[in-house]
Design a protein that fits this description.
The complex is a heterodimer of chains A (662) and B (248).
Chain A lengths: L3 E5 L2 E4 L3 H12 L3 E5 L16 E2 L11 H11 L6 H20 L14 E2 L9 E2 L5 H22 L6 E5 L2 E8 L5 E8 L5 E5 L2 E4 L20 H9 L3 E2 L4 E8 L13 H4 L3 E3 L23 H7 L15 H13 L9 E4 L6 H7 L1 H11 L8 E10 L2 E2 L13 E3 L16 H24 L8 H16 L6 H15 L3 E2 L1 H18 L12 H25 L8 E2 L7 H4 L1 E8 L2 E8 L5 H4 L4 H4 L5 H15 L5 H17 L7
Helix pairs in contact in A: 1-4, 1-11, 2-3, 3-11, 5-15, 13-14, 13-15, 14-15
Chain B lengths: L2 E7 L8 E7 L8 H14 L22 E2 L2 E2 L21 E5 L8 E3 L2 E2 L2 H8 L21 H11 L6 H5 L6 H12 L8 H14 L10 H5 L7 H17 L1
Parallel strand pairs in B: 1-5
Antiparallel strand pairs in B: 1-2, 3-4, 3-5, 6-7
Classes of the chains: A alpha/beta (662), B alpha+beta (248).
Chain lengths: 662, 248
Amino acid sequence: MTEIERLSFDVVVIGAGGAGLRAAIEARLHGKRTAVVCKSLFGKAHTVMAEGGAAAAMGNVNPRDNWKVHFQDTMRGGKFLNHWRMAELHAKEAPDRIWELETYGALFDRTPDGKISQRNFGGHQYPRLAHVGDRTGLELIRTLQQKVVALQQEDDANPDSDGCIEVYAECTITEILLDEIGRVAGAFGYRRESGQFVLFQAPAVVLATGGIGKSYKVTSNSWEYTGDGHALALRAGASLVNMEFVQFHPTGMVWPPSVKGILVTESVRGDGGVLLNSEGRRFMFDYVPDVFRSQYAETEEEADRWYDDPDNNRRPPELLPRDEVARAINAEVKAGRGSPHGGVFLDVSTRMPAEVIRRRLPSMYHQFKELADVDITAEPMEVGPTCHYVMGGVDVDPDSTAASVPGLFAAGEVAGGMHGSNRLGGNSLSDLLVFGRRAGAAAAAYHSSVVGDLPQVPESAVAAAVETALAPFATESGENPYALQQELQQVMNDLVGIIRRADELEQALVRLAELKERAKKVSVTGGRRYNPAWHLALDLRNMLLVSECVARAALERKESRGGHTRDDYPDMDPAWRRINLVCSLRGDTVVVEHRPLPAMPVELLRLFDIEELRKYMTEEELAVLESDMTESAIGQSGVEAGAEFGAGRSGSTADGKEGTSR
Amino acid sequence: MNLTLRVWRQPSASAEGRLVTYEVTDVSPDMSFLEMLDVLNERLILAGEEPIAFDHDCREGICGACGMVINGVPHGPQKATTTCQLHMRHFSDGDTITIEPWRSQAFPVIKDLVVDRSAFDRIIAAGGYISAPTGSAPEAHSIPVPKANADAAFEAAACIGCGACVAACPNGSAMLFTAAKVTHLGLLPQGQPERYTRVVDMVAAHDAEGFGGCTNTGECAAACPKGIPLETISRLNRDYLQATLRRH
């Protein structure tokens, strides 16, 4: 039998990004012996790459902001497919989480009177993002990491304390293990450094593993984003929700290959950059949808005047919502009018003097000069859509973040529901803090509830996990993991990308099934000590499983909404808004089921104007709602006028609905 | 272009290491340095050899995971650039490139180009944090921080903890890293209560880890991919001096 390091904890947190660290801190504050297990080095998690900020309705810059407005914005951004309760908790608790972070020593940009400064972002009605220049994620990780260290020091100084936090860096979990009656009993994995196996025995496991971007060829995500938590949850018997919704940012670098996917900030367009096709045409004028037509310029002259006089001119179509811009770029490339490396041109060089570009866009100037050897003051950039965020994730209870498997919890990007069909920029960092804390608390409470009857890991399950992990060494001259990953990324990019069609999705499922078979024969050479090929071979399994979920759910949802666009079903369908698609694993097969979306209570519905809700709801729902609302509105004359005004305003805010942290 | 690489291979911490020569052909000038190593690794795997181990994660210059000494310079020849941001166009056909791990007594090699940087964690553990009251958010809404102090702390807060400063220093000192952490917290109101114990404790931990003393050579600031200035160390020294005086 292979030697296995055996450790025992009350709570094990998988992932050391924002959600994982916040969960671990909370579990420790509840007096639990807590382990944080991270695949990469401690403090290098993907959260570190977030730039824009954390959305929290503190009202520092505009006192009219409050949780209700934040809630409305979040629901609109997600096209009303969000789990209302998650959006509510998030909007209510985000400010407390930010202030609390300050007590941990976080540094934020300040207003002149010393308060936390807040910046504007797409889809947020008021300036709402607490930020630290363009490296908010770095600050968030550093602060949480130092809080972990502070608690560790406290524990060292007080040997009688119950709780603790131990960090296991460069340690990859490959399986969640259950006891005989289906409760979480532990997590199994290996240490990268030595290749040694490790078993964490614990009744409560918090998944905080982030997203799935590395299944796509072009992504802004970190190299560790292989959908581990999504796959671990599925294999443990939990389900995933909203997996068809993947957010693509319209402007990522497309060349050179080494930097493909790295984001080009939206402010390049905000400052006057224009999108051009290979014929030199400003093609965005051809892609203004009817619902936005009244708000966007029809001529280049008017668009150009907007930058200096936004009150008397309409916005340039380059500043349409991100999903619209991404689709337009995609269409131009497909029509053969793309740039040499498969994107389109984004030009500032003919729009402003070189010294202005260097002053206003210093980081972009540096990024293109260093990475692509392109001088953006002299030539256009090449850009294209890049996979940025997965809205789908583990199906959890909003208040406790508990998955359907007893003892399993999930928070952050790996959890689903909060963002509906599309996430607003800035809502990710706040999501991590709000639900990370809730996950830690709930996992601690769960541990207390089972402490008299702790689940035991069956030895057979450990043996099976060892065998699975070692399989790539046992196979001789089988498939190369790097080659398989590249094929997977190509399939997802070409067939399950930004625009989807039934025939392409069906083709993708055939290809994924082939890859799944081939992945069973993946082989690696060398030893277990820090062997990247072996790491990839094990990650591949997760990427393939999660990719299948995305493709199956995308095939099932026959409408277009947020991060899911169907060429063959281009419209949003109110009937589909009432449905969540839920993926689970039966044997080796991914099953997709329909489930009704939890209904929003009427007091929250009343935050919206009925005219706005008309865009999203079925006639049947509206009829019920109208009677409810009328009852509550008795004695309030002028409801009609208010509704009309509200509809106009919400139309313009739904405008910037898409968003990411940049 | 075609290149000759001399790469430090070391199977484990206890094993002896040596430079191994590899010929890499058809390298595109547009490849990143890490991508060039990926290509070499794929070939090694196909040939049944063990790939070269190196740390990397975001490949965007913000996470601080990557780092290797390239032709004697941490993170290679480009200023204010991490290894992952370095591109092959800065090299020429026929070049021989020597690639080594961070070299410092306090950063033992784990395998090949991967070193153990946990000494940094232990310096942080000696005081690089705030032990303010925990639990619920304070009633006080938020802590007012003078904008000028916040802006000054930013410079230090840019540290990504990669360790290039140590690799660059002829003494193997981690004083720029330590100073960035000390200065960052020392400029914030939350960091005041522990300001003077922090600096003394962190410097003591730094020395105990086997990092060398600072002689103001300035190689650290030159190598720092985030451009953290040498003045940061002066700030640390000022706090350290005050802390010592307070004791007497």
